[in-house]
Structures are given as structure tokens and as C-alpha cells.
Amino acid sequence: MFDLQKLVRENIKNLVPYSSARGIIKDNQATLLDANENAFSSSEIEGLNRYPDPLQVALKKKFGKLKGVGNQNILLGNGSDEIIEIILKTFCDPGKDNIVITPPTYGMYEVSANIHDVEVKRVNLNKNFQLIPQEIIQTIDRHTKLMFLCSPNNPTGNILDPNDIEKILREFNGMVVLDEAYIDFSDTNSWTKRLGEFPNLIILQTLSKAWGLASLRLGIAMARGKIIDFFNKVKAPYNIGGLTQQTVLRTLENPQKMHLALNEIKRERSRLMKRLGQLEVVEHIFPSEANFLLIRVPDPKMLYQYLMEKRIIVRDRSTQVHCKGCLRVTVGTPEENDQFIGAIQAYKI
Ligand SMILES: *Cc1c(COP(=O)(O)O)cnc(C)c1O
């Protein structure tokens, strides 16, 4: 039986969260002498002397509307990386609890767990980069609080079979964190629509990829309200700056630019696949539902160095599970992709 109260750490359940001045006062016209802010801003930009909305209500309403999710079901973080930390801090007792990850996958889950002294259990994906649900279920023990699944997966680019994800959601009584950082590049549906079905599902998205706002740092978690309530207790009170909130609001109000870029990236992804497929040095291109391609070549280290000398930087993933010989290439602008194709065309094995 899934029991949220049993999963949350005892100290977090008992935690009296920091009560921020700006969380209580709603009257913008009031004389604000409560938060030790400086009434004389030293910036050209207005309003930066005041603390920002700790719960980012306006932003969550806007994002929630886009995703069909209520604002009480949303947590915003300083990038997904902060959210991963908040999740670990909420559920995992250091030195006692463990998490499951499914390599090859995003590196931050493990790093974050290591920082918090939380044991990491690895259940590799199969050779087709799909989950092995039976093995995952067998690996879980009574200290397994969380599992991180990534779909579309980084660095492989494929969607994880939804039937496998559903099986795990139903059989695992801990939290399943489904990282959908690349979902907008995929033709498959986000799991946000099914959030109501699963009390143990946490979906991660980010503005760093499809929305092109990596520098702003904004990650999103979506889950049942009771889970989000715990995260709000754990997070730093003012974790999203006021400028970020304003900038993101304006970007979300005008999504046409994002859609145009998204279409161009998908077109370029197809073109890259086609052009790279004609080259002898490229042994295999894995199908991708993300904004990158994983390619297999005979000597990845040498090709990596060669490209580096031409000042084209790709990611060497050749030491990852099932990724022997693999480089990961992000889809760039048409000009950048042409540079990459040209360079690899001129490469002699
Ligand atoms: C890029 C990426 C993210 C985004 O992280 P941010 O901290 O939001 O920039 C999250 N998950 C995966 C799998 C990624 O590849």
C-alpha cells in the first residue's frame, strides 16, 4: 500500500517551516517595514529591493494553465537540479535510505544522492534502452524511497515504454520521479494528463530545453498537492528570483517563438539524421525524441578530439552502459549543424 506519511522523513513531517514575511502580507500598497529590505533600491530595475513571491503564484497559474495542472500541484525550482535535491531531502534519510536509477541516464540523480549520502541502486536499461520492470521490482527493498526514470531519456533520446512505467508506478510503493526534460521534442504525450491516477508520481519538466531558458534556471515538478506541500516546507523560501519570475511570465505569455524554434529543431534533427546516416564513419544513429542524437562511431575518443580541434564540442558518452562508441550531439542551428556535418564528412577513419 502506498502511504505518503510513511515515505516522508520524520524530521520533515515535524518540521516547522520558515515563515517568510512576504508569504503572509498580500497588500502591495502597504508600508512594508517587516522584512528588513532596503527601501532605497540601488538598481535601475524597479522592485528589486523587495523579496519576491515565495510561492510564485502568478507564474504557477500561467504554467499550470499551459499544462492542465493546478497551481497547488506545482513546485518551481532553481533548475530541475534544485528540485532533485528537494525531493531527496524530503524522502531520503542519509546513510539509511536508497534510490533506484536506470543507467544509462542523467548524471545528476546519482550526484545529488551522493551529496546527501543516499545509497544508489542501479538497474541498467536493456540493450534497447528500455526498462526491465521485473528487475527493478526485485531490487527495491524497504529503504527504497525513490526511483528516477527519464523519458525521453538522456543520453539515449528514446521514450521509455509507457506500459513499463505504469507497471512500476503500480507495483512500487515509493515515489517515481519521471523526468520529462525533453518531452516537448517528442510526439508522445506527457504524463501530466495522468497525474490524477498515481499518488506516487512526480513529473519533472524544465524551461532549459524546449523553452530555451537554460540560463534563467527554472525547473518544474508536478505531483499531488500533498506531496507539493511537503516540498514547499523543504525548499528555500525565496528560491526563484523576482526577475526570473517576471521574465518567465512574459515568455509563457508568448509561446509562438518557442513553437517556431521547436519545429525548426525537429526539422534539423531529421536532416542531421539523414545526412549522418550517409556517412561511413557513423555506424549507428539511435532514434531520438529529444533535441540531440546519440551516434555510434568506431573510435569516439579520436573523433571527439578531432571535432574539438575544429572547435566543435560534442559529448563523449562512450563509457556509459550500453553506449560503447557513442557520442551525443545536440541539434544546433542549421549553420552549426552544417559545420558539424562538414567536419565529420572530412574526417578520415
Ligand atoms: C537538461 C536536463 C535537465 C534540466 O536541468 P535544469 O537544471 O532544469 O537545467 C533535467 N533532466 C535531464 C534529464 C536533462 O537532460
Summarize this structure briefly.
The chain has about 350 residues and is an alpha/beta fold.
Characterization of this structure:
36% of the residues lie in helices and 14% in strands. The strands form 2 sheets. It has a 7-stranded mixed β-sheet, with helices on both faces. With 349 residues, the protein is α/β, with parallel strands linked by helices. The structure holds pyridoxal-5'-phosphate. Pyridoxal-5'-phosphate binds next to α5.
**How do the strands of the widest beta sheet line up side by side?**
1-7-6-5-4-2-3
Number of strands: 11
Assembly classification: single chain
| Poorly predicted spans | none
How would a crystallographer describe the biggest sheet?
7 strands, mixed
**SSE ordering:** HHHHEHEHEHEHEEEHHHEEHEEH
- Helical coverage, percent range: 25-40%
Instruction: Give the radius of gyration.
Output: 22 Å
Secondary-structure-derived class: alpha/beta
Mean pLDDT: 96
Strand content: 5-15%
Q: How many angstroms does the end-to-end distance come to? A: 56 Å
Bound molecules: pyridoxal-5'-phosphate
Query: How many separate helices?
Result: 13
Give the overall form: globular
Blueprint of the fold:
Elements: H1 4-7, H2 10-13, H3 21-24, H4 57-67, E1 74-77, H5 80-91, E2 98-101, H6 108-115, E3 119-122, H7 133-139, E4 144-150, H8 162-171, E5 175-179, E6 201-206, E7 219-222, H9 225-234, H10 242-253, H11 256-277, E8 284-285, E9 292-296, H12 300-309, E10 315-316, E11 326-330, H13 334-345
Parallel strand pairs: 2-3, 2-4, 4-5, 5-6
Antiparallel strand pairs: 1-7, 6-7, 8-9, 9-11, 10-11
Helix pairs in contact: 4-10, 5-6
The structure holds pyridoxal-5'-phosphate.
